[in-house]
Structure formats: C-alpha cells, structure tokens
Amino acid sequence: MKSSDMFEDAKTLMPGGVSSPVRAIRPFPFYTQSARGSRITTIDGPTLIDCCMAYGPLILGHAHPEVMEAILSRVRDGWLYGTPIPLEPQYARLLIDDHPGMEMLRFVSSGSEATMAAIRVARGFTGRPDIVKVEGGFHGAHDGVLVQAGSGATTLGIPDSAGVLADVVSHTRQVPYNDLEALEGLLAGNKTIGAFILEPVLGNIGPVLPDRDYLAGVREITRAHDVLLIFDEVITGYRLGIGGAQNLYGVKPDLTTLGKIIGGGLPIGAFGGRREIMELIAPAGPVYQAGTFSGNPLSLSAGMAAITWLHDHPEIYQRLEDSTRSIGEGTSRKAGSFVRIGSMFKFFFREAPPRNYREAKECDTGRFTSFWSAMLKSGIFLPPSQFETNFISAAHDEQDIATIRSAYQACL
Ligand SMILES: *Cc1c(COP(=O)(O)O)cnc(C)c1O
C-alpha cells in the first residue's frame, strides 16, 4: 500500500488520520518505513534527509547505536516494574547537576505533563491562582495553557480549543515575547499572579530569539514581584548545549521543565527546581502528582545513554552551530529571513526576523508551503509548517549539510 491509500484508510479510523495534528500534511503525509542517522525512508520508496527529527528529541540522529544498545539491554530485564530502579536517582543527579535551576526533579512521561505539574506546584507554593505565559509560547496540550494568542495581558484568556473552560483559562494571562514593559506592567498591577512560564527561546513558532537582556530582565522582574519563573526547556534542554538556555544565558529559573531530548527518543518529561518548592510534591508534600509510566526504565535508559553521549562529545554543539550557520549562508536575504541558534533553524518568509508571535504571524505561509514542497521534492523533509523549528542532529554529516544548503538556495 502507498502512503496516499494508507492515509485515506487512517482518516476513517482516527481523527484527521493521525495521532497528533501537525502530522496531517496535505494532501497526505508520507508513512515511514524506517530511519537511521540523518535519513528517513518512506514506505513509497524515497529516502529523505530529515530536518524534522521527530520535532526535537533526536539530537543524536535516528537509531543511534549507543541509545539502541541501552534500550535493548534494558528490555532483556523487563521494561516496567512499578518500583524504583537504580538508574532513577543516577539519571536525576546527572540532569540536576547540569541545570543551575534544579535541586530536585520528578520524572513524568511527556513535556505536557511536566508543564502541567510545574504550574500546579507553582500555585501550591505561592498560593496564587493566576499564571502568565508568552503569546505564541507552547507548553503542551493541557487546558491551562491552551489560550488564544491575541488575548493579551489586559483581557482574560480566551480558550484556544473547544472543550476548554473559559473559567480555567481566565487564570492565564499573556504577554508578548521580548517585551519587559508589558511583563512589568502586568505583574505590578496583579497580586494574584504566581508564576511566569516561558520558552526561553520560542521553539514552537520559530526559533524566535530573545533580545540581549530579555531573559535577565525577566528574572529581575519576576523576582521583584515574588513571581516564580518557570523555564520550559522541553525543546531547549540539551539542544542549546548542556544545561540548556539557563546555562547559555546565565539565568536561573525557579522551576524547569524538560522533555524531548532527555528521553533519547522515547516518551519522557521531567520538572524540577528549588528544593523548597519541589518538596511540596506528593508524597513529600500536599501537591498531588503521579503516573504509571513515570520514570519508566526504557525511557530512562535511552535518555541516560543519549545525555551521557553528549557529555562525552561536547564538541558536537560547536559542529551543529557551524552546520546551521553554513545552511544559512545558502539563503537569499531577499526572500525573507534566516534565523538560527545551535542546531535549530528556520527560514521566515518575512523581511526581518520575527521578535514575537504577532510578527511571526506576518509570514507569508503560502510561499512557505510552496518552498516546503520544493524541498521535499529535493529530498529534504522539513517540518510542514512555517511555525515549526527545523532541527539537525549529530548524525548530519558535511555532505548532508551541503545538500541541505544547496537545496535551500535552489528552492528559495
Ligand atoms: C514539545 C513541547 C511540549 C510538550 O511536550 P510533549 O512531550 O509533546 O507533551 C511542551 N513545551 C515545549 C516547549 C515543547 O516544545
């Protein structure tokens, strides 16, 4: 069966034919047979250079041998016990030691779960009901963060999904990214706000990069108003380097959420932070949080192998940096703007790089779609949206980068 037929069938069985909306590429997505290194092979035949990399987790590339070995050797001993395993505190220590903002953590099974629990414990700690997020910032698919962009700081949040209660999102305020004045104005006027959650680098409409003093300013303002600062590093954790954005920018949040890369390609999430906050989590404290698959042995084993590999090969981050810079050199400034940081990059069909959600929305998505199709025909799989970040991995070699670069040049 071909991908087109398979999708027709899938649409009768699953909403939109998919298990997560971004995969529903029109007219049909390709179905994957296998993947290795930088390459993904479709059931229709072609092998493509992958710049989607499962939307972020695979910084070592597909089917990395050391991660594979870790998974296989764990599997032989069984893969779920409902008890702690020795690897749990070992891996927790590694992650905590890497992140200045983490003194304790808890493992969960997805990034969404991590942000949901981080917000809950922030409310438990501060006793304040409201939170602030950044417009266009993405923190997963739970109710409290599904707020329509555009419902700004002065109005109460409006649900961004049917089925989400207006009552729930009325506790979620929003500010534009890179706007310290808006944040200060909001926090100064509201004693009901307990936490500010943000992606330090916007990864779900971008990358959209922070202005030079933005994150330091955010830290200063939140501290001055006794508001907890939550860095959602589900993408940036181990993507921008060991220790993520908090290490790169030298800003210490009160709480941190991780996911994606720390599972080595298997489902995972984690949230952590200051000890006095984390000790409120059950059973140590009154904030309830639990999960059957939390800290599951396979995800921990794969994650530990991946993060250990990164520790053993710190030079990889410079190579990834050089690679995306090289891809950017193949893009025309006339067509739009190329933005990159570490192994994240994107070409925006907008004259200047966007600084926030409103500016990102000005991109010409029609032109993006034509460009995306042309890239696919050239054998390169990009995430199918102007607003999803492209990723490369340690498995992309010089030849891959040269191919991506010349495809950009030609397709733009
Ligand atoms: C992917 C992502 C999430 C959600 O993680 P899931 O594992 O998909 O639930 C949360 N925050 C950010 C910044 C993300 O990129």
Pick out its properties:
Aspartate Aminotransferase, domain 1; binds pyridoxal-5'-phosphate; 412 residues; Aspartate Aminotransferase, domain 2; single chain; 7-stranded mixed sheet; 2 domains; alpha/beta
Describe the structure.
By secondary structure, this protein is α/β, with parallel strands linked by helices. The chain folds into two domains: 130 residues, Aspartate Aminotransferase, domain 1 (Alpha-Beta Complex); 247 residues, Type I PLP-dependent aspartate aminotransferase-like (Major domain) (Aspartate Aminotransferase, domain 2), CATH 3.40.640. Helix content is 35%, strand content 15%. The protein is built from 14 helices and 14 strands. It has a seven-stranded mixed beta sheet, with helices on both faces. Strands 1-2-3-13 form a four-stranded mixed beta sheet. Strand 8, helix 8 and strand 9 form a beta-alpha-beta unit. Helix 2 packs antiparallel against helix 10 and helix 3 packs across helix 10. The longest helix is centred in the N-terminal third of the chain and has 16 residues. It is globular. Bound molecules: pyridoxal-5'-phosphate. Pyridoxal-5'-phosphate binds next to helix 4.
Short description:
The protein is of the alpha/beta class and 412 residues long.
Percent in helix? 25-40%
Low-confidence parts: none
Can you summarize the main beta sheet?
Answer: 7 strands, mixed
Highest CATH level, the class of the largest domain:
Alpha Beta
- Note the total helix count: 14
CATH topology category name of the largest domain: Aspartate Aminotransferase, domain 2
Integer-rounded radius of gyration: 21 Å
Report strand order across the widest sheet: 4-10-9-8-7-5-6
Q: Mean pLDDT across all residues, rounded?
A: 96
